[in-house]
Specification:
Layout lengths: L1 H20 L5 H8 L3 E8 L5 E9 L8 E6 L9 E5 L8 E4 L5 H6 L14 E5 L2 E10 L2 E10 L3 H11 L3 H17 L2 H30 L3 H30 L1 H22 L1 E6 L5 E5 L5 E4 L4 E5 L4 E4 L8 E4 L8 E4 L1
Parallel strand pairs: 9-15
Antiparallel strand pairs: 1-2, 1-8, 2-3, 3-4, 4-5, 5-6, 6-7, 7-8, 9-12, 10-11, 10-13, 13-14
Helix pairs in contact: 1-6
Length: about 350
């Protein structure tokens, strides 16, 4: 059995290396030929979830007919949040990065679709390869990142039909469930991710980023490609100017000025109120009852709690609100804007 496992492992590595030895494909070509929207089973993950969803694969509005916009739900059972992933390179994407289109609907209609760049865009990435989807985070470069999840498309029709036949097998079905449970338990840990990273993901990233450099260097020599890249750069600048101008318009608007004035008023009011108050802390370990001089009403302060009161008055406390014996804890104007502690 051990010999058989070793042979299977060697063959797996061999075929993986043989595939990678072929001309490496960019991510958009891989998506186009091998992936579609649907539910993907978690092979191994940091997170306790069984499946994640590729909600849709749309044409990238930044470069139609060339690349894609992948709509992804990482936790479909817990949240409706959907993330967008885009190619990391205009010519030869080696990964897809989490990002978004810049601007509002008006900007996008007037200028076009611009993919957001810079932090935090690019920290989370996605790689489609063979039958797997690799989810990466904390990305710095191809040699510095964290692999947090590996996904696999749920079974083909033939595999699902085979599972249905096994269910009819009585005790055999029971044994199959035990085997499946053992496989899931074995495949769920970090060892599985590290194995897939070492044997499949990292060799691809090494080759893909190397090819990205050489492919782009040739690609950009084409005048049409150079025009396209300059056009996309122009869109970025125009979008940035539009957003900046919009921010300036907002700041110069009467509504914004009234809002800032209100904030200043509230801040000043709070500061003035704090100057006219004293905070009394209760550190006695018991409830105390605080009385303002000349008043028969008390305020209860529970242990380790506090209360803020007018600092121009004298205050007394006791442990029984009905007692006539009071102890003075604060003298008028003695600590305005500060605090006292009853111990």
């Amino acid at each position: 059995m051990k010999i058989l496992k070793a042979i299977v492992l060697v063959l797996g590595v061999f075929f993986t290396q043989m595939l990678l030895g072929q001309d490496v494909k960019n991510q958009s070509d891989i998506i186009r030929s091998s992936f579609s929207p649907g539910k993907y089973t978690v092979v191994s993950s940091f997170y306790e979830t069984k499946e994640m969803i590729i909600d849709d694969i749309l044409l990238d509005k930044n470069q139609p007919n060339e690349h894609f916009e992948v709509i992804f739900q990482q936790f479909p059972n817990e949240s409706t949040k959907k993330d967008q992933y885009f190619p990391d390179n205009i010519a030869f994407p080696a990964t897809y990065i989490e990002s978004a289109y810049e601007g509002d609907e008006k900007d996008q209609k007037e200028i076009g679709y611009v993919i957001r760049k810079g932090r935090p865009a690019g920290k989370k990435r996605m790689v489609f390869l063979n039958e797997y989807i690799f989810l990466l985070d904390s990305w710095e470069n191809k040699d510095s990142y964290s692999l947090n999840t590996v996904l696999k498309l749920e079974g083909t029709k033939e595999e699902n039909d085979s599972k249905k036949k096994k269910k009819k097998g009585g005790f055999g079905s029971f044994l199959n469930k035990i085997k499946e449970a053992k496989v899931k338990q074995k495949n769920g840990g970090n060892d599985t991710r590290e194995k897939l990273k070492k044997e499949i993901l990292q060799p691809y990233l090494d080759k893909a980023f190397e090819k990205q450099k050489t492919y782009y260097a040739q690609w950009i020599k084409n005048p049409d490609h150079a025009k396209l890249e300059q056009y996309l750069k122009d869109l970025e600048k125009l979008m940035d100017l539009s957003i900046r101008n919009q921010n300036e318009k907002i700041k110069n608007s009467p509504e914004y000025k009234r809002m800032k004035a209100m904030h200043a008023y509230l801040d000043g009011k709070a500061a003035n109120e704090s100057k006219g108050q004293v905070t009394i802390y209760n550190k006695t370990g018991k409830d105390i009852y605080l009385f303002e001089e000349g008043s028969g009403n008390s305020s209860r302060i529970t242990p380790n709690s506090r209360i803020s009161v007018n600092c121009s008055k004298n205050y007394y406390y006791n442990f029984n609100p009905n007692s006539s014996y009071n102890t003075q804890c604060y003298s008028a104007n003695g600590a305005c804007g500060s605090s006292v502690t009853v111990q």
